[in-house]
Amino acid sequence: MTPTGADDDGGILTDPMRTKGTAFTAEERREHGLLGLLPHTVTTLDEQVGRCWGEVHRQATDIQRYVYLRGLQDRNEHLFYSVLAADVPTALPLVYTPTVAEGCRRFSALWRRPRGLYLAWPDREHLAEMLRNRPHREVDVIVVTDGQRILGIGDQGVGGMGIPVGKLSLYTLIGGIDPARTLPILLDVGTDNADLLDDPFYLGWRQRRIDDEEYFAFVEDFVAAVEDEMPDVLLQWEDFATPHAAPILARYRDRLLTFNDDIQGTAAVALGALQGATDVAGTRLADQQVVMLGAGSAGIGVLEMVRQEMVDQGLTDSQARARCWVVDVRGLLTTDRDDLSDDQRAFAHDPADVADWGLDGPAQLGDVVEHVTVGVLLGLSTAQGAFTEEIVRTMAAKVDRPIVFPLSNPTANAEARPADLDAWTGGRALIATGSPFPPLHRDDGDDVSVAQCNNVYIFPAVGLAVTAARATRVTDAMMRAAARALGDASPALADSRAPLLPAWGEVRDVADDIALAVARQAVADGVAPRASDDDLRGRIAATRWTPGY
Ligand SMILES: NC(=O)C1=CN([C@@H]2O[C@H](COP(=O)(O)OP(=O)(O)OC[C@H]3O[C@@H](n4cnc5c(N)ncnc54)[C@H](O)[C@@H]3O)[C@@H](O)[C@H]2O)C=CC1
Ligand SMILES: CC(=O)C(=O)O
Ligand SMILES: [Mg+2]
């Protein structure tokens, strides 16, 4: 509906980027022809925020809170971001993991309004036209998924769109990217989820996924169309299945401004958290045996950065690899397996390394923990409860401060619950999780927060950095710089009882610090124009969008 007042400016009341809702003043109501279209009382933004939080809390379930907040985002973006900013720790689990998983599962049933672009395979001849139909001309950041591996809940088809939408709202909340300059994209290439194919209300292209030859050709056409339409945009790949994620990154990382969040963002946050953890443990990463449960793109991506860090700390490449152990659904990665990709094979052990363990079949996680003095146990496996009491107690019997990160999302997929890890290790475990968990209770009555080791600490800051610095590529060194800057901000460095990662209340300031480190590295790597630290700081501040009328 367009108001028809004397100075009608084309629907300011219903434009989510410009509306103030009940906060339009009496003068503004007259000026824009809104008189009579709103209830009499003029409210402040703070009052609106209070009213909205009241509504959020009155909802019966988290998925209802998610639906309410998504609706608010579609109605009034300034108010939506003001609401999130007013209570980040409460808001984050509602717009992101774990609730967003349910939002993706029920995407078709919950459909309200369009947001972003749906690029479906049957429309592949019209990619350029579809990109030109984007709601906002100038775009700084795209998050794209094909919905095949959404968090740890598998193929959600078109419902995967919940993830780009959620991630981009955090680009704005934490990284200060103008919401009108963000674009969520869903590549709809079908789904292999039988429930969705049978669902009469499924809104995506109701076919099985296309084959790999067609798939990679479609992705190439998509990238080419993005290059034509938005040559400077940051293109973030999100929640692609492992067989597609690494090849896509390898193909495009030197061609445009792009990164894979699950591979590189996860690696950077994990390394940042490990910096605090090893400091508290009084060791170096290079002195640890590191076990990764899960050999998907996330697990291998993290280990690759762990390997680089160990080499930086003085190990040779082969010494570093020898300290990394990867266990997947079949067992330990060993060089005699014929089901490994090149990325996985790079972390496979010689079967001779485990020959004297006396095993009948492949070594499992329990075997590795029994025969190796494991200091760091990481989980990116989607396997709920895989860090069992026996495994954790065995590990904790050999090291003073076991570092245990169950990183799979959403909450139900976590490899262990922090309270259990804490109990099994007598409070010695240094813990970080992928999704939020309640704080740990201490005997002295204190509650200690559990760090949420999630790539949300990284991607908004990287987006802010490349936008501010006008970078043209995302280099490995830039992701390492992000990890170091995050690690430097670990509260555990100053207080060994504190969480391994900064509190959500500080996350925007930390994002500024990470962005400066990343931008500086972009300049050093020659992928951004020369600029002094002061220039970069100024540009980061100028890029930052904050909500308000
Ligand atoms: N905390 C964070 O920031 C992030 C967390 N993740 C989480 O990581 C998880 C994995 O993601 P991807 O690597 O893309 O998935 P993926 O499905 O490609 O890989 C899963 C891996 O775990 C292994 N696995 C599955 N069940 C297992 C079991 N019972 N025992 C041992 N290994 C098992 C599989 O063999 C495979 O190697 C997801 O839950 C995702 O939400 C991913 C990115 C970021
Ligand atoms: C956090 C994230 O990117 C994931 O679980 O896939
Ligand atoms: Mg992801």
TrEMBL record:
Q: What class of enzyme is it?
A: oxidoreductase
Boundaries of each Malic enzyme NAD-binding domain copy? Answer: 263-523
The protein's organism comes out as: Actinomycetospora termitidis
Q: Which family does it belong to?
A: Belongs to the malic enzymes family.
Q: Which keywords are on file for this protein? A: Metal-binding, NAD, Oxidoreductase
InterPro entries documented for this protein? Aminoacid_DH-like_N_sf, Malic_N_dom, Malic_N_dom_sf, Malic_NAD-bd, Malic_OxRdtase, NAD(P)-bd_dom_sf
Ranges for domain Malic enzyme N-terminal come to 73-253
Give the Gene Ontology MF terms in alphabetical order: oxidoreductase activity
User: What lineage does the source organism belong to?
Assistant: Bacteria, Bacillati, Actinomycetota, Actinomycetes, Pseudonocardiales
- Pfam families (alphabetical): malic, Malic_M
Protein name, entry field:
NAD-dependent malic enzyme
EC annotation? 1.1.1.38
Q: Does the keyword Cell cycle apply?
A: no
